[in-house]
């Protein structure tokens, strides 16, 4: 619908997550560690830090703002979180455009997954095993526990490390330098903590995986394949640097998984479609390379799984302007599954490129009768109305959508375009202000809203709304700066 190299930030975040308390992974029962880190960070404070870091991430990292993929990863992540023990924070799952295999957890239940992970996970259960592992890092509060452990050695360390995390998101090289300057722990001790936390996250993650209905054997299978693939290489992927994989950890995960029944699941259509969409648009392949990948996979893939590959191939043709080829692949898929959001999204794009606006709008309105809460369908309809120059109708949908999804950049960005076409400068400025606030660009956000309030009719509801939002933004800015100044 709407259409980077390894960075040290993710390695740093994951490394911090895996430097924690002495080994507890072999305990028979889960420890109640909810209060263990309370003297360092409360849950509420973790959530505040998580929000702050996410704003910085949006400003400086290639987050994938694809509604279809976002809906998929959120659904998968929340299915796992709903089956996790000890959940004390809301969870937010997001995707990073990065070929490296990796995933990481921030404060406050924010979990990032690299697009490259989709290339290496053979099944949805394998992808779920990685996410379940990261959820365990959050529920066990590994980062907070690590900071508490460091604070016991040096009271100034916690604030310095929090500041380094923030600085690293904004300026990676400076942040890494700051981190090294404040970390006084031996390499052996760090490795011990890493192994402890990783085994604990594996153990709890396997339990979550089983409760959510996935195959618990997927975790050791994924580990074994990664270890074999990189056994003799000198350049390890990011995931193995931040999540060390010694033989003992692989063995431990295999023994843990053997305590559960093997779950034999049919291939997940949604996972295979998400994987194809990743390859077509978010792995970093050229269009030629992506087509070569799909053609190679089609030669060895069972007939009943080829539709997902044809979907990805159709996207490549769509994005390269080869609409006849795209249509030949995509229309039969939609005809067979008319309520599939992946296919609806792709064929809507095809319709819009071909200027068949009414056809796209009618299909989306019909689909929304059955899936009224679908963010994919709502955004697609707003976009189709925009392309059809039905701006006020698009604005109406987007105002409701952005109220319900205030952290989704897509809604605000499309509002900016709609208001600009209508010459509604105050609305355009306000939407631009929201985009700036989502990236922690507080000065710009306040400036945009100030101008919006000045342009609105004196005494109007719009002016009152802009003034109220200005007050909120100033409070958020003050809170943000107070958090930063506490480092």
How are the secondary structure elements laid out?
Blueprint: H1 8-17, H2 43-60, H3 67-81, E1 92-96, E2 103-105, E3 110-114, H4 116-120, H5 124-139, H6 142-153, H7 157-170, H8 172-182, H9 187-211, H10 218-229, H11 238-242, H12 247-257, H13 269-281, H14 287-300, H15 306-319, H16 323-336, H17 341-353, H18 357-370, H19 375-387, H20 391-404, H21 409-421, H22 425-438, H23 442-455, H24 461-485
Parallel strand pairs: 1-3
Antiparallel strand pairs: 2-3
Helix pairs in contact: 2-7, 3-5, 5-9, 5-10, 7-8, 9-12, 10-12, 13-15, 14-15, 15-16, 15-17, 16-17, 17-18, 17-19, 18-19, 19-20, 19-21, 20-21, 21-22, 22-23, 23-24
What profile does the largest beta sheet have? 3 strands, mixed
Average predicted local confidence, pLDDT: 83
Strand content: under 5%
Number of domains: 2
Gross geometry = flat
End-to-end gap = 41 Å
- Give the topology string: H per helix, E per strand: HHHEEEHHHHHHHHHHHHHHHHHHHHH
Structural class: mainly alpha
Rg value: 24 Å
Q: Taking strands numbered 1, 2, ... along the chain, how are they ordered across the largest sheet?
A: 1-3-2
Number of helices: 24
* Strand element count: 3
Helix content percent band: 55-70%
Which parts are unreliable, with pLDDT below 50 for 5 consecutive residues or more? 4-38, 170-193
Put the structure in a nutshell:
By secondary structure, the chain is mainly alpha-helical. Helix content is 68%, strand content 3%.
């Amino acid at each position: 619908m709407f259409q980077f190299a390894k960075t040290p930030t993710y390695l740093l975040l994951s490394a911090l997550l895996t430097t924690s308390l002495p080994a507890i992974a072999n305990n028979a029962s889960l420890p109640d560690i909810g209060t263990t880190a309370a003297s360092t960070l409360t849950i509420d404070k973790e959530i505040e830090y998580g929000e702050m870091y996410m704003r910085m991430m949006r400003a400086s990292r290639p987050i994938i703002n694809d509604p279809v993929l976002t809906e998929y990863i959120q659904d998968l992540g929340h299915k796992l979180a709903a089956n996790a023990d000890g959940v004390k924070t809301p969870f937010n799952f997001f995707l990073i455009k990065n070929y490296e295999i990796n995933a990481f957890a921030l404060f406050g239940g924010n979990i990032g997954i690299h697009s490259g992970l989709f290339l290496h996970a053979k099944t949805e259960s394998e992808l779920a095993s990685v996410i379940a592992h990261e959820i365990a890092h959050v529920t066990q509060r590994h980062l907070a526990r690590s900071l508490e452990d460091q604070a016991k050695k040096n009271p100034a360390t916690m604030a310095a490390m929090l500041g380094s995390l923030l600085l690293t998101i904004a300026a990676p090289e400076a942040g890494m330098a700051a981190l090294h300057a404040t970390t006084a722990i031996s390499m052996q001790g760090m490795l011990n903590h890493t192994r402890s936390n990783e085994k604990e996250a594996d153990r709890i993650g396997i339990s979550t995986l089983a409760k959510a209905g996935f195959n618990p054997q997927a975790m050791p299978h994924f580990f074994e394949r990664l270890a074999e693939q990189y056994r003799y290489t000198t350049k390890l992927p990011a995931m193995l640097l931040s999540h060390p994989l010694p033989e003992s950890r692989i063995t431990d995960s295999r023994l843990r998984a053997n305590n559960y029944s093997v779950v034999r699941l049919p291939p997940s259509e949604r996972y295979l479609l998400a994987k194809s969409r990743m390859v077509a648009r978010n792995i970093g392949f050229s269009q030629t390379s992506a087509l070569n990948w799909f053609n190679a996979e089609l030669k060895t893939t069972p007939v009943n799984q080829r539709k997902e590959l044809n979907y990805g191939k159709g996207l490549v043709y769509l994005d390269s302007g080869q609409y006849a080829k795209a249509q030949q692949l995509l229309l039969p898929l939609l005809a067979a599954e008319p309520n599939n959001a992946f296919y609806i999204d792709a064929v809507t794009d095809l319709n819009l490129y071909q200027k068949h606006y009414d056809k796209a709008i009618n299909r989306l309105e019909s689909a929304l009768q059955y899936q009224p809460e679908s963010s994919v369908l709502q955004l697609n309809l707003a976009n189709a109305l925009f392309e059809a120059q039905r701006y006020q109708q698009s604005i109406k949908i987007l105002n409701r959508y952005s109220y319900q999804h205030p952290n989704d950049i897509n809604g605000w960005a499309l509002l900016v375009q709609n208001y600009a076409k209508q010459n509604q400068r105050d609305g355009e400025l306000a939407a631009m202000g929201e985009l700036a606030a989502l990236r922690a660009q507080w000065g710009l956000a306040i400036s945009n809203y100030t101008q919006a309030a000045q342009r609105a009719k004196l005494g109007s509801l719009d002016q009152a709304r802009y003034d109220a939002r200005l007050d909120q933004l100033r409070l958020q800015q003050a809170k943000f700066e107070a958090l930063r100044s506490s480092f």
